[in-house]
Structures are given as structure tokens and as C-alpha cells.
Write a structure and sequence with these properties.
The protein is an alpha/beta fold and about 775 residues long. Helix content is about 50%, strand content about 10%. Helix 2 runs antiparallel to helix 14, helix 9 packs across helix 13 and helix 10 packs antiparallel against helix 13. The radius of gyration is 62 Å and the shape is elongated.
Length: about 775
């Protein structure tokens, strides 16, 4: 028998999913989160990324409210009992100021390292010192607490203290008798341990102050020990400074003795080397130069002056040696040349004047000319004399320069030799100077430490002494109850959430769709106490009957052709409401006027003949074995238009019978007489019956029992149907209890009946419709 393609265009109430035709009769489900193939054995591909929203948390809270409330009440009760059993504890606080640097009375007199203002380890170090065993022992010794029987005797007992005692080890004896009978050292060590365990150190924000609290069952004793802690911390800090000063003095004295010997040895070695090498030092660093170095410096200065003089004389001589006239500044400034030039100028002037009257050969004219020539000769002689003097000066300067260079070379050799000999001298001198500086510094430090040792400089001050507490600091009943309430609520919510995560039972319509990947066709409410499913189905005013009407309405839009002609109902496990759903569907369509054949194909645990009060001697098994024809196996029921084909005698080989072609023939022949054939198949649970029959029917509906079916079972069952190429068109959730699922609400149809229709989008049939006139009220 060919199977038509199963497709649905119905928008299932609340699911907003639509089925479209898919290949091989496998519907494809379109979700608002994306198109996902209707993989019949599993959930959505993105199920791992699914996250609960606030409504889901509220659902879990409502579902597990009694668990949460029980855990909350239990923890609050335990917290209240524990708080009331505790002995009142009083806390007294002393406030200390801990400066990073102590007041420096003598500069450099401190021997302990001073913490910088930006040190992050100073205050934490002080806090640990406040909680140290040494400070607690000091307080116990100062107040003689080791001899106080009232202090050593335990003053409180609590459940938590008893439990803690099993996991903590004490070096001192714990019982009253053993404590008092122990040695004095043991008693004081036990008292110091008690003090240390009751100290609480709290820094004051944004300050260098700290509050040191001590808790004790006796208020006056709490005040006394708190004040003793502050005073002991101040005293211990002073003792630490005095001890550091004493140690520093001893250390400095030892270092001074050693440095003194080293200084003497270094000075003696310096003097001996200076005498040997004949090196004399004046003691002034700037004047501590040798005679050779001084002479070399003077010679270098003289050489510079000689070089400048030589260059000057050389330039003057070269300038005059090349000159052909007497118009040079060096010649014009000479007095002799100046006089001769004046005489010559006068004679030339006279000669020119007389030349107008006399001829050049005239005796007076010849005489004047001779005078001019004589003056020219004298000028030439004077110029030559000046040139010779400049040349002589140049040569003298040059000779002096050469001699000075030779002298400098000699002095340089002497200075280099002296420097070579002074290397060891300078080393010895630096060693002696360093030893002297170290000795002077340590001597000054020793004097400062000696003076500062007697000054009681401290950086810890008691700002506010402890007072007698007027009220106990613990137990705080309000705080304890609030913490217990918060803890109980957190534990309860966590337990509820964990149980919900580990609970793989399917309880809600959303879970059915998420796990199956199929559209949800209907939700059937759970029966109330004392209700019978057959009676509720027969009662048109009941909530279950209304829910099945909604399911049948969805079936009318489940495929392209409307209501499938052959419909198979199955489930993963028995007891999930499969047979009741089959009966309700068949009864509903029969009352609407369709001719319906109800086939009980559960050949392992038949039940429809009991529900309809029919005979089971002849039925499906009889037909499949060939012992009767189909009409002989049909039985009329009390419901009009509804015929039943019972299961018949239960065969030992149900799978073999159902695999034969006679079952396919039954459906083909039956459709010639009936408008609808509804088959009640056995549960899948590893059997081959349901997959065989589902392949022969036009559509298959999978029933899931709320709170009974588990996700793994549903996935496995749907996967088997997929392997059998079953056209599964949707699922039905039965036995749904909205309150048990955590929704906390229900939907009401008319007539006062409570029901859940999963959104109410599917139209309920009109009770005034003529289709309902055939309902057999007596049934």
C-alpha cells in the first residue's frame, strides 16, 4: 500500500511550527530558530546551546517549591538552633596608630629600615605581628593568665565547636583538669593560644590606624586583654628598636677597630713609597703637581708666545722683502724715512718751479737734481736697513722656537717618567683616602647611634583605649538568621536546579517538541482522583474530552489531504495513554458521522475490547492467521459509526503475523467500507510490531506520557520509526499536570471544567453543531 506524503500546514497551538512536504514521507519542521529536519530520534541540533530564560527558572521554582521550602526551613532551623546554643561573646577594641616612620630625634640615628610611604608590605607585616604568638605570650605573662583558672576553663560549647574539635589539634591539654594540672609553661602556652585565636585586626580605611579587637565571654576581661594587647605591642616595638640599636653599636665598634688598622697600614705604605720614589705632595689636590709638570706647563705657554712672535716677524719680513716702494705702513711710520721723503718732496717742488725758468742743464738745476738722487740713495739704504732688522728679528724668533721645542721634549719625558712612577703612589693614596672616609663615617654613625639609643622614639601609639562592651558582639541572631535564610534559599534553588537537570523525564509540551523535533498535536490533562478515563472520554463536558477534541481538530489539518485515512497510534513504553488516545480519536470522529474502524493491533497486551465491553475470541490475530475474513472479525460497539476489530487470541509470534501482506490488505479492504481506520499499535520498546505497522499506515501519532517517558526512550523510539520509514505527523502529550510541571496555572473550557489546550488556538467543535447529534449519551 503506497503511503502518501505526510505534510501539515496546521499551526499547532503554542508551538508556532509548520510542517511542509519532505522527501521519503519524513516531515520537515520549521522553527522560529531556523529550519531543522525532523530527525525522529533526537532533539534540535542547537539543543546544546539552549538556555533557560526567566520564565523557565520560575517554572522550575514553582515545580520544586516544596523541595526548596523544605531545605530552606531545615537550614534556617539549624542556623537558629546553632545561634541560640552559642555562648554570648563580648568584643572590646583598642585603636592604634602605626606610622611608617618613627620621629627622628637624631638624624641618622635609626638603625631599622624605614618603610617608604608607598610600601605595600609595611601594614600587613604589622597586622601579622599583632596576631603573633610572641605578642600573645607577652600579654598572657603580663596579666598572669596562665594562673587564672576561670580564663583557662572553656566558657562555651556549641555544635560547631564540638565538630571543629575533631578536626583541629591542640598542643596544650584541652580538659579543665589537665590544663590546671599541667606545667606552668604549658598553661601559659595554652593561654597564649586562646588569646591568639580571639584576636581580630581590622585596618581603618584611608588611615594608618588599626582596630585590634579581643573577644571573650567576660566583658571586663575582654577590655583588660584588649588594652594589654595595645600596650604590649607598643612595648615590643620599643624593645625591637633598642635591640637593633644595641646590635648596631656592637657592629659599628667592631668595624671601627678594623678600619682603624687598615687606615694606619695604608698611610704607612703611602709614606714609604713617596720617600722611595722622592714624590712630594703638597696636600692640595689642585697644587699637587710636580716641578717637572709645572715647568712643562710654563714651557708650553712660552712656546705659544714664541710661535706667535715668529709668525708675526715672518709676515713682516716677507711683506717688506717683496715691496718695491716705500708706501708700506712699516716704512711710512719711520721718522728717518719720513724726513727724507719730506726733503725730497721739497727739492722736487723747487726743481719743478725753476724748470719753468731754467733748463735742466743749468747749474742750479743740476745741483737740485743731484740732491734728489742723494736723498733717493739714502731712502734705499734706510729701507734696506729696516728689511735686515726684520729678517734678523724673524730668524731670532725662529731659533727661540726651536730651542723651546727641544726644552718641551725634555720636560715631557721627565713628566711621563714621573707619571709612571706615580701610578702606585696614587693607588696607595686613594686607598688611604677611602679608608679615612669610611673611618670618619662609621665614627660619626657610632656617635649618633649611641645618642639615639637612649631616646624612646616609637612609631606606634595608642589612640583610643578599649572600653567595657555593653552588648555581646556574637551571636547576632538577626544576621545568623539572614545568612541561614540566604544559604537555605541558595541550597534549595541549587538542589532544585540540579534535580531538574538530572531529571530526563518529559513533563512539558516544550520538552516534547524540543526532544522529538515534531509538532505537538495535543495536550491531554491528567485524570483527577476517582476519575475513569472511559467515562471522561464519553462525557462531552469533561476536560479530557475537550482536549481530545482539540487533538482531533489538529489531525484534520495534519496532511495535505486533511485527516489521514489510516492512522496508527503508538508510544515508547506501555502505560502512557496510547490505547485511551486511540479510543478517544476513534470515538470523536465516529460521533462526527464518519465510519470508523478501530483496530486493536496490540497482540501482546490487548485492552480495547475491555474498554468497549466487546468479545475477543475473534479478531486481528484470527484474520492474520487466515482463519476468518475481515467482516467476521468486525464488531459493532455502543458508539454509532464505530466498529472494533479486537486483537483476538494473543499469538506467540506477533511480529511474524504483522509482517505478512494480510495486514496491508486489511487496510486496503477496510478503506472501501470505512472512512477512517485507527490502529492501536503496541509500544515500541524494542519490538518490531509498531515499525512494521507504521509503514503500512498513512500517518503515525506518537504518544508521550508526561512524567513517565524519558528523553532517551523517546529518541530511541522515534529513531526506530524513522528507520522503518514511518510517516510520523506529530506527538500527543498525555497525563499532563500543569501544576506538577511547574506552570502553576491551567486553562478552563466552559462548563467550569479545568483543562489545558496549549494555547487554545485550535477551534473546539461547536456543541450546537449537527455533527454532535449522533453522540450516544448513554455511552
Amino acid at each position: 500500500m503506497s503511503n502518501p506524503q505526510a505534510a501539515s500546514h496546521q499551526e499547532t497551538p503554542g508551538s508556532h511550527r509548520k510542517l511542509v512536504p519532505a522527501a521519503d514521507n519524513v516531515p520537515t519542521v520549521h522553527h522560529p530558530y531556523g529550519d531543522v529536519g525532523a530527525y525522529m530520534g533526537g532533539a534540535y541540533e542547537d539543543q546544546e546551546n539552549f538556555s533557560f530564560d526567566l520564565r523557565e527558572y520560575l517554572r522550575i521554582f514553582y515545580k520544586r517549591k516544596w523541595l526548596i521550602l523544605s531545605v530552606l526551613v531545615a537550614i534556617v532551623a539549624l542556623g537558629a538552633v546553632r545561634t541560640l546554643m552559642q555562648t554570648p561573646i563580648y568584643s572590646s577594641t583598642v585603636r592604634l596608630q602605626i606610622d611608617r616612620n618613627a620621629m627622628e630625634i637624631v638624624k641618622g640615628g635609626q638603625v631599622t629600615p624605614n618603610a617608604s610611604p608607598y610600601s605595600h608590605d609595611f601594614l600587613p607585616t604589622q597586622f601579622e605581628l599583632l596576631k603573633s604568638s610572641a605578642l600573645a605570650e607577652r600579654v598572657a605573662s603580663r596579666l598572669k593568665l596562665g594562673d587564672d583558672a576561670n580564663f583557662l576553663t572553656p566558657q562555651q560549647s556549641s555544635i560547631m565547636g564540638t565538630i571543629k574539635g575533631f578536626f583541629t589539634s591542640q598542643t596544650a591539654p584541652k580538659s579543665e583538669g589537665s590544663v590546671l594540672k599541667g606545667t606552668r609553661k604549658d598553661r601559659y602556652r595554652w593561654a597564649a593560644g586562646m588569646i591568639r585565636g580571639r584576636i581580630n585586626v581590622r585596618p581603618v580605611p584611608q588611615t594608618v590606624m588599626v582596630d585590634v579587637s579581643y573577644s571573650d565571654p567576660v566583658p571586663a576581661r575582654a577590655q583588660k586583654i584588649a588594652n594589654a594587647l595595645g600596650e604590649a605591642f607598643v612595648a615590643s616595638n620599643l624593645d625591637k628598636r633598642f635591640q637593633a640599636t644595641a646590635y648596631a653599636k656592637v657592629f659599628l665598634e667592631d668595624q671601627l677597630t678594623q678600619l682603624k688598622l687598615r687606615l694606619q697600614e695604608s698611610q704607612k705604605a703611602l709614606i714609604n713609597f713617596a720617600q722611595k720614589e722622592r714624590i712630594v705632595a703638597t696636600g692640595d689636590k689642585e697644587k699637587n703637581a710636580s716641578i717637572a709638570q709645572t715647568n712643562l706647563a710654563a714651557a708650553n705657554a712660552t712656546l705659544g708666545a714664541l710661535v706667535a712672535e715668529r709668525i708675526k716677524n715672518e709676515q713682516l719680513w716677507k711683506q717688506l722683502s717683496k715691496a718695491t716702494a716705500i708706501n708700506l705702513p712699516q716704512l711710512l711710520t719711520n721718522q728717518v724715512i719720513e724726513q727724507l721723503r719730506a726733503q725730497r718732496n721739497a727739492l722736487v717742488t723747487e726743481y719743478q718751479e725753476k724748470l719753468e725758468t731754467f733748463k735742466p742743464r743749468y747749474p742750479s738745476m743740476v745741483q737740485i737734481n743731484n740732491k734728489i738722487n742723494e736723498i733717493d740713495r739714502q731712502l734705499s739704504a734706510e729701507v734696506q736697513t729696516i728689511k735686515d732688522s726684520l729678517k734678523a728679528r724673524y730668524e731670532a724668533s725662529k731659533n727661540q722656537e726651536v730651542e723651546m721645542k727641544k726644552q718641551i721634549e725634555t720636560l715631557t719625558a721627565e713628566v711621563l717618567d714621573l707619571q709612571h712612577r706615580s701610578i702606585k703612589y696614587n693607588i696607595l693614596k686613594r686607598e688611604a683616602d677611602t679608608n679615612r672616609q669610611l673611618y670618619d663615617g662609621l665614627l660619626q654613625r657610632h656617635k649618633e647611634v649611641s645618642i639615639a639609643g637612649g631616646v624612646g622614639a616609637n612609631n606606634v601609639f595608642v589612640i583610643e583605649k578599649a572600653h567595657v562592651p555593653g552588648a555581646p558582639s556574637s551571636p547576632n541572631i538577626r544576621r545568623a538568621l539572614l545568612l541561614s535564610f540566604a544559604l537555605g534559599l541558595g541550597v534549595g534553588l541549587g538542589a532544585a536546579y540540579l534535580l531538574e537537570q538530572f531529571d530526563d523525564r518529559i513533563s512539558t509540551p516544550d520538552e516534547v517538541e524540543q526532544i522529538s523535533g515534531l509538532a505537538l498535536l495535543g495536550v491531554i490533562p491528567k485524570l483527577g482522583d476517582g476519575q475513569n478515563v472511559e467515562a471522561e472520554i464519553a462525557n462531552p463536558r469533561s476536560a479530557i474530552c475537550e482536549a481530545y477534541r482539540s487533538l482531533c481538530t489538529a489531525l484534520q489539518f495534519a496532511t495535505e489531504n486533511g485527516l489521514p485515512k489510516t492512522l496508527l497510534i503508538t508510544s515508547a513504553n506501555p502505560g502512557e495513554g496510547k490505547s485511551s488516545t486511540t479510543l478517544a480519536i476513534a470515538r470523536h470522529f465516529a460521533t462526527m458521522g464518519l465510519k470508523v474502524l478501530l483496530v486493536d493491533a496490540d497482540l501482546r497486551n490487548a485492552s480495547l475490547h475491555i474498554k468497549l465491553s466487546c468479545d475477543n475470541t475473534v479478531g486481528l490475530s484470527t484474520y492474520l492467521t487466515g482463519n476468518c475474513t475481515p467482516p467476521e472479525a468486525f464488531q459493532a460497539t455502543e458508539v454509532a459509526n464505530l466498529a472494533l476489530m479486537a486483537s483476538g487470541p494473543l499469538p506467540p509470534n506477533a511480529g511474524d503475523l504483522l509482517s505478512k501482506p494480510r495486514f496491508f490488505s486489511l487496510l486496503s479492504v477496510g478503506l472501501e467500507v470505512f472512512d477512517l481506520i485507527v490502529v492501536d499499535a503496541p509500544p515500541i520498546m524494542g519490538l518490531a510490531d509498531a515499525p512494521l505497522m507504521s509503514n503500512a499506515t498513512e500517518a503515525t501519532v506518537f504518544v508521550v506520557g508526561a512524567g513517565e517517558a524519558r528523553s532517551g526512550q523517546v529518541k530511541g523510539a522515534l529513531k526506530r520509526l524513522q528507520l522503518g520509514r514511518a510517516p510520523v505527523i506529530g506527538t500527543v502529550l498525555t497525563k499532563f499536570d500543569s501544576k506538577a510541571a511547574g506552570y502553576g496555572y491551567g486553562y478552563g473550557y466552559g462548563y467550569g471544567a479545568q483543562d489545558y489546550t496549549y494555547g487554545g488556538d485550535s477551534p473546539a467543535p461547536d456543541r450546537r453543531s449537527p455533527q454532535l447529534t449522533n453522540v450516544d449519551e448513554s455511552s
